[in-house]
Every structure is written in C-alpha cells, then in structure tokens.
Design goal:
Two copies of one chain form a homodimer. Chain A has eleven helices and 14 strands. The first copy, chain A, is α/β, with parallel strands linked by helices. In chain A, the strands form two sheets. In chain A, strands 1, 4, 5, 6, 9, 10, 11, 12, 13 and 14 form a ten-stranded mixed sheet that branches. The longest helix of chain A has 18 residues. Chains A and B meet through helix 7, strand 14, helix 9 and helix 11 of A and helix 7, strand 13, helix 9 and helix 11 of B.
C-alpha cells in the first residue's frame, strides 16, 4: 500500500457570507483522502457512527479510497459547526460534538503497517504516536496539529515531532508552537524539534515552506468566489502527499511541485461547500490550474 | 529628465518592539527617491522647513537625487510619530504634525514638465492632479493613496485615477476603494476606474499585481529581523519605478521584474530604522537578493 491517512470523518454545518449548509460531509480524513485520490491510492483510517449514510461511503469508494480502516462505532458521527465572516481566513467554531470520535483509537488493518507515506491529520498527538508505532518504516511521515494540542498536549506533541518528516500547520500555530512572532525564527526553532521540513499554511496568502537550507513560497490561487474555506488545509495536505506518493521522488524540487499541487487542490475545495467541487473535479482541470500557478509566479519572461 | 516623484520629506519618530528612534529622516518622497536612485536618475519635488539639516540634504545629493524641486519654507518640517506592535503589518499613528507640508503646492521647476516616469506619492489627490497638469506626456504615471483620501476626497481621487497607469496601494485600501471584500473582484472594479495596472502591497505577504488579463504575485523576502516597516511601501515603489525607468521597457515581463526589484529594495529598508540600511546598501546586494527571489519562488527544478 502507498498512502495512509489517519483523521476524522465528520458532518459539518457551516455558515459563510455566501450561504449555509447543515450536516454535510466533512472531516480532515475525508478531505485529505479525496484530494489525494486524484494522484494515488489512499487508505483512510477513521471512525464514523451508525448514522453515517451509504451515500457518503459510495462516494469515497468511487474515489477508490481503501476503507478497510474506516471503523463504524455505535453512536453518532463527529459533528462540527462553524461560521466564517468576510475574513474567510478564520473559522469561528460554534459547536463541536466529538461523539464516536471521542473514543477513537486508530487500529491499522493487516497490511497497513507497510504504508510508505503516512499523514497524521489533526488528532491527539498521543494517537499520532500510536499510529507511528503501528507502521514499520514509512518513507515519509507528515503531520498536522492545532492550537488545542499545542497548548494542552505539548509534551506528547514534542514526543511525536522527532518521528515526523514534514509538519504542516498554519501561521498562528507556527508562532504558538515556537513562542516566537517572527516566522523565520519560529520555523528554525520548530525544525530543531524534529521535522526536516515545515510547511506553513497562510490561508489566502498561500504557503511558505522551510527546510534547514531553503525557503519556498507559493501564493494561494486568486479566486473571485471563495465560498467556504472548510477543508482547504486538509485538501492541500492530500494533494501534497498524494503527488509525492505518486512520483516517489522526495527531492526538494519534487516537494516544491507537491506544494503547488496541494495549493491547486485547495483552490478547488473552497469554490463550493463540503466536497462538492472535488466531486465534479476532473484531473485536466488540476493540470490546467497547475500551469496557471506558473503564470501567476513567473518573472522570467514566461508570461 | 527621467523619473519624477512628488511626495513628503519628514522627520519620523518610531517605536517598534525592537527599539525606538526620534526625529529621524523619513517621508514618502525620501524613501522613494533614495530607492529609485539605485536604478536611475530621480528628481524629488517636496517641501522641508527651515529646521531641515544640511546632513540630510548632503545624503540625498550623495545619491545624485535632483533636489531643484525641493522647496524650503519658513516653519518646521513635517513630523510623524508612530508605533508598531509585534504585528509589524500595521502602524499606529501617535501624532502627525503637517507643518510646512500643510500649505505644500507642488511646483515643478523648468524642465520637469518633460518627465517621462512620474510617481505621485500619497498626497491629496487634488495636488496629484495638479502635478499631472504640469507634466506634458509622461510614458508612465504611478500613484499611491490612503484611507484618509479614499474616504475624505473620493471624488478628487476618482478624477485623478483615469490619468494614472499604475495604482500602488495596500490591501485594506484596495478593499476600501472598491467597497468589496474579495480582492480579485475589488481589483477588477478598481481597474474600471482608470488604472491599467493595480499593484497591491500586502506587507509580510508581498505583492499581488492585477491587469485586465493577468495576475502576478511575489512574496515578501522572509527576514529574521524586521526592525521597522516604516517606508517599506515607498521604497517598494521607488525600486519598481526606478527599474522601469532604467530599462525603458513597459512589457508585462519587465513590470513583473520591476515588482521583484521593488520587493528587494523594501526588504532592505525594513532591516533598520529610517534609511539606515539603504545608506549602506551596495548594488551587488540588490542583485544577489533578486536571485534569491528566484530560488524562493521557483518550482521548475531550479532550486
């Protein structure tokens, strides 16, 4: 098997200035695996409740996502409710019901221990470490986290980070984890915690990547209609890891291209609620937008 | 003559988390002309009071800036006092004393009417139009403005914009001028007001440029030490216009390179208070940092 993600599958209720939806398909594992499925085979480890409809399972299977690690537990599926104002960079959480996710213990099905590419979505760092103990020798481990864990489970997080190759977090989390307002200094301090690469998500400003010897930036794709930013970060991570798993090339040049593919995928997700845009996305649209990123950033006379 | 700037020369008092300075050399015209002087001949039209010291005039002359349009009026030089917190993107104005700048009426010395490249720094849009009436057929007119004029002198500004080729403003001003939160839509609406090109300054996120047919982005240069952002925008404009005036090439490729040179120059200004970093800057450092921008943004395997 190639790419493994451990994360959440959820029902999201979202309000933006452009509309609202109730209990639509969401969750970090859902966005990640759907996005990655455009590039490679992907296996999803997560939990849903007994209320999770066949329709969503059918969709995930239509993307050829391996669901052997998707547990169904008695009870309700994880629910999240949030609102965005005109500043679409920040979600205001209105309600979180963990439900079956509260007792979630990731158990990898037989065969999954040989996963080569692993993404640990934003879950308890103790569970992240637990997953890493179940896999043998992955070529690449990437991981997300959030303010809640940085503050509340800092020690567990610091134990997990030395086993992580690429940490993918947002700008506020970068500053919080390092305790340093300057992003370049903060990145250096986080690289000293273990990860060889730090990928910082900056919402409408794109992504900036730090390694010991280099910095790389990509803008977000400028869109006239940003409908709903929910899932953008996990969609980014899915495109990023999916591309890397498909090329089997971990050179810096390949990682940079993977970041651009991640931004491409995220730019589609935000064009509609839930995974609606990804559901009708064709791969030639992905390639076309990748080419547009070149025009967007080129100053060598290409444009 | 080649490049003309009309703007302010001021004494700035600035507090940042990293230190403070009192009544140091500042002003939009000062930053612009010093930055542009690394690329081309530049003429400065502005006003100072009788308290303006010889030392500063000597510095501007050492940069071979033409000061025939720098009036000296009885009274005190314009003074600005501001503070920045750890979020260095936003200045908090503590005090503004317009002094001799209050009665400033730009009068172009003989010969200046043939200026080919004109930059109207952030002054009253009526004065900006007045300057444009004094020049004959410039090849390129660029202009800055601010929230104060957008709100208080909107009609005058809307009369000036049709005569402006390139409007250079920040992100908040873009949204305010257009009355539209989405940047892409806001840009389209501003292009309909007259300018063929809109250059949006985004502080630590760099610059995004809009034309009718294209969008171009450049990140800010990632710095470990941002000492004082004062003057970054005018330094950017100076590098941008200075480069364009030096190449005499207004193709999109040339404008994109000019934007990168503007970002390069701004990245030096913020490394120290006042114009201190520009005072000790060598052109090979400029070229070296331009090359670093390529590495920072390349995803074609160069890095």
């Amino acid at each position: 098997m190639s790419l493994l993600v451990v994360g959440s599958v959820a029902f999201d209720s979202v309000e933006t200035p452009f509309g609202q939806v109730e209990e639509v398909l969401g969750g970090s594992g859902t966005y990640f695996s759907t996005s990655a499925s455009f590039f490679t085979d992907v296996s999803l480890v997560a939990v849903v409740g007994s209320d999770f409809p066949q329709e969503h399972l059918d969709f995930l299977r239509s993307r050829e996502i391996d669901l052997r690690g998707l547990q169904t537990a008695a009870g309700k599926t994880f629910r999240w409710k949030g609102r965005y104002g005109f500043d679409l960079n920040e979600a205001h959480t209105l309600d979180t019901q963990l439900n079956v996710f509260e007792a979630f213990r990731p158990e990898l099905p037989a065969g999954y221990e040989s996963a080569e590419y692993v993404f640990l979505a934003n879950i308890d760092p103790e569970l992240q470490l637990d997953v890493l103990n179940q896999v043998k020798k992955p070529l690449l481990v990437a991981c997300d986290t959030m303010n809640f864990w940085i503050e509340g489970k800092r020690e567990a997080l610091l134990k997990t980070l030395p086993h992580v190759d690429i940490l993918i977090i947002n700008e506020g989390e970068t500053r919080q984890l390092a305790g340093e307002p300057n992003l370049v200094k903060a990145a250096r301090s986080i690289l000293a915690m273990g990860p060889k690469t730090l990928v910082v998500k900056r919402g409408e400003y794109g992504v900036i990547m730090f390694t010991e010897h280099s910095i790389f930036t990509v803008p977000a794709y400028p869109l006239e209609t940003v409908f709903d930013p929910t899932g953008a970060g996990d969609t980014f991570a899915g495109g990023f890891m999916g591309y890397l798993a498909s090329t089997r090339n971990l050179s810096e040049a390949s990682i940079r291209q993977a970041i651009v593919f991640g931004c491409v995928m995220a730019s589609f997700t935000v064009e509609d609620f839930s995974l609606n845009r990804l559901k009708r996305l064709e791969f030639d649209e992905v390639e076309e937008r990748f080419r547009k990123f070149k025009l967007l950033t080129d100053f060598d006379g290409l444009a």
